[in-house]
């Protein structure tokens, strides 16, 4: 067997392992392959280009070959390491690309959801601002002016004042008023009254879910208590099921249902007033209620007597929700014409008896003789007065009894305002 067959097998192919080749290169003994005589035994002769390499030259070549083989081993190992690193980086890059694609897809979905949420919020705010206007919302602007309004009708629409205090007094939950004079609770604290009230409500099956939001006492009469509730449904339940009242405050009385006023401007007098243009028709409440699909309990004229065809009135409604709805619409139909709703500001005024024209009592309690509001004469009313004299029945001055410039009226009004403001 030849040396090639011994160490190389003689049958090596192109696909043989690189490691096997390197191992073979290390195991070859190049000194043994040299069959010539040692250099020292040869006949000395001049060196020419055709002379075979010496022993030292062969050692140098063998050393170089071994160095090349070792360097090749290191490069091969480094190449394999770099290949593994490249594969690892390529895998990480593929993973990053996949994560980035998923992140972009998720961000796209989030952008669509945010856009839909913003649009929904915008629609809700738009509808809310149109529907749920309250007394405070209405105070910020004035009533719309019709394009085809006449000078008389335009003059009848007063400018809106910014009454900040009105919004705080009008925006409140439903309330009921109790008269506790016959229950001996004058010395009981408001907290104890509320606790007794809530316990009584929960003891009745019909009112067990009703919650009291709070109570207030009349500063001038501690037995007069106002009870605030959450909704109008709770108020209706409390008023229609009075078992709680007997349980908590035997002998107490509950005041009638509260009315909610709305001021109405640009009202045609012919639509709600009688022929004398001073008193409201008996059927005015029913007509306004049917025109606007609300429950109107009372209508009262506000404007001073004049020749103007349009003026202002106050409409009292049974439900606060209906009052808020009219204020939100800003328009109400009165006799087929559009009038403008506004917040009604209650101003304390001296109460005058329409029978004797005095300021110390009301008509239903009057036992005095009837007097004319124009001439202060007795035994007749203004519609039957034939006198040309103008005299106040209250102070005796040269003016009508309903004149708000009356010294008696002004003095009483100042006293009322001073007492209210404390």
Automatic annotation (TrEMBL):
Keywords on record: Coiled coil
A GO molecular-function annotation: nucleic acid binding
Top-level taxonomy: Eukaryota, Fungi, Dikarya, Ascomycota, Pezizomycotina
UniProt region (Disordered), positions on chain: 30-56
Amino acid composition bias (Polar residues), ranges on this chain: 47-56
Domain of life of the source: Eukaryota
Segments passing through the bilayer: none
The protein's name in its UniProt record: Nucleic-acid-binding protein from transposon X-element
Signal peptide extent: none
Coiled coil: 65-120
Domain CCHC-type: 352-368, 371-387
SUPFAM superfamilies referenced in this protein's UniProt entry, alphabetically: Retrovirus zinc finger-like domains (SSF57756)
Keyword Coiled coil (UniProt): yes
């Amino acid at each position: 067997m030849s040396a090639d067959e011994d160490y190389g097998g003689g049958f090596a192919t192109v696909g043989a392992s690189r490691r096997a080749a390197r191992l073979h290169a290390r195991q070859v003994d190049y000194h043994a392959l040299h069959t010539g005589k040692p250099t020292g035994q040869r006949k000395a002769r001049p060196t020419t280009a055709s002379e075979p390499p010496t022993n030292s030259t062969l050692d140098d070549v063998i050393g170089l070959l071994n160095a090349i083989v070792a360097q090749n081993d290191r490069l091969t190992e480094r190449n394999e390491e770099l290949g593994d690193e490249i594969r690892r980086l390529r895998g990480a890059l593929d993973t990053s690309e996949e994560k980035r694609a998923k992140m972009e897809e998720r961000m796209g979905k989030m952008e669509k959801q945010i856009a839909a949420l913003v649009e929904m919020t915008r629609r809700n705010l738009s509808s809310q601002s149109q529907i749920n206007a309250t007394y405070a919302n209405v105070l910020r602007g004035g009533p719309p002016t019709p394009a085809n309004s006449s000078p008389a009708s335009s003059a009848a629409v007063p400018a809106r004042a910014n009454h900040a205090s009105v919004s705080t007094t009008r925006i409140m939950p439903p309330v009921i008023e109790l008269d506790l004079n016959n229950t001996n609770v004058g010395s009981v604290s408001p907290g104890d009254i509320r606790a007794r009230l809530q316990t009584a409500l929960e003891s009745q099956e019909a009112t067990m879910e009703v919650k009291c939001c709070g109570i207030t006492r009349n500063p001038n009469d501690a037995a007069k208590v106002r009870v605030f509730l959450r909704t109008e449904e709770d108020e209706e339940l409390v008023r229609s099921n009075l078992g709680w009242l007997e349980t908590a405050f035997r002998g107490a009385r509950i005041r009638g249902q509260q009315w909610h006023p709305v001021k109405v401007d640009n009202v045609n007098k012919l639509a709600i007033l009688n022929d004398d243009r001073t008193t409201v028709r008996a059927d005015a409440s029913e007509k306004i209620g049917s025109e606007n699909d609300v429950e109107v309990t009372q209508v009262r004229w506000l404007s001073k007597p004049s020749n103007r065809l349009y003026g202002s009135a106050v409409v009292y409604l049974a439900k606060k929700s209906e009052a808020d709805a009219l204020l939100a619409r800003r328009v109400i139909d009165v006799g087929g014409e559009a009038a403008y709703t506004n917040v009604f500001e209650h101003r304390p005024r001296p109460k005058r008896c329409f029978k004797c024209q005095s300021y110390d009592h009301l008509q239903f309690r009057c036992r005095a003789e009837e007097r004319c509001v124009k001439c202060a004469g007795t035994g007749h009313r203004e519609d039957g007065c034939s006198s040309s004299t103008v005299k106040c029945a209250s102070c005796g001055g040269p003016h009508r009894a309903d004149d708000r410039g009356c010294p008696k009226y002004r003095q009483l009004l100042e006293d009322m305002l001073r007492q209210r403001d404390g």
